[in-house]
């Protein structure tokens, strides 16, 4: 794998490969000594032009557990504030020896530009670009759903017959987009629930059903209910109901939590707006996989960096000499 830029162009086989390597990585994380020597001598740069807690820290943890050196770059406090371009910033970091660049940027398409411009030779991982995609979030979500469904027998399995309902601000959500492409490619049936003003105008090529009534969607019996963050910072000209109205019609409250099937899980990519799209009761309930998703994110990002940088056809499990 040369880059990881989106899930729209990721094949079913590539996606399953990442999920299966992530299973191996998760196995290594249960050991007393978590660190693998696999990426010793490699340098991973975390290039973040937007704020992040989970993604940045889990990429850092993933790289360090594979013994890579990590350089963290945050646009705040850097020469970006003096007008330095993406090209000059990236080339500066490459000159310091970057083998992989993990980039989060407010502009949709920035990671692809970095990967295809010829400015740098490092592998590029999209850690979220504008409203476009957030592929590793979708991969860790798919990993979490698969793990909950198949447990220790997850390897090689897709998500055929799994019903996933994604609720909220689809218009601004890169998480929703990446999940739509990935989950449907893995065979899941995906339904979107949103206020009519918060869905994209043209969804003709989206392989999903769209409904506007959350109670109706819950009555259909989803296996996973994924609540999206309301992105007030990206709302611009989009019409948003009042927070009270949004919460009443599209929020996951105690009543709706009770209406879910016995084995349904509640997901959220974080950060959560408690009391808006999800109640504290739902966020902290035994059905919630929020923290499981965070933990799985480290394994999935280890897998992505491993496949990008180790250039190995075999996984650590298949290649014990690399497993330290
Ligand atoms: N889910 C997610 O991308 O969270 P962060 O913004 O904290 O990285």
UniProtKB/TrEMBL annotation:
Domain of life of the native organism: Bacteria
Binding residue positions for carbamoyl phosphate: 54-55, 104, 134, 137, 270-271
Binding site for L-aspartate: 82, 174, 229
Enzyme Commission identifier(s): 2.1.3.2
PROSITE patterns: CARBAMOYLTRANSFERASE (PS00097)
Subunit structure: Heterododecamer (2C3:3R2) of six catalytic PyrB chains organized as two trimers (C3), and six regulatory PyrI chains organized as three dimers (R2).
PANTHER family hit by this protein: ASPARTATE CARBAMOYLTRANSFERASE, ORNITHINE CARBAMOYLTRANSFERASE, MITOCHONDRIAL
Protein name: Aspartate carbamoyltransferase
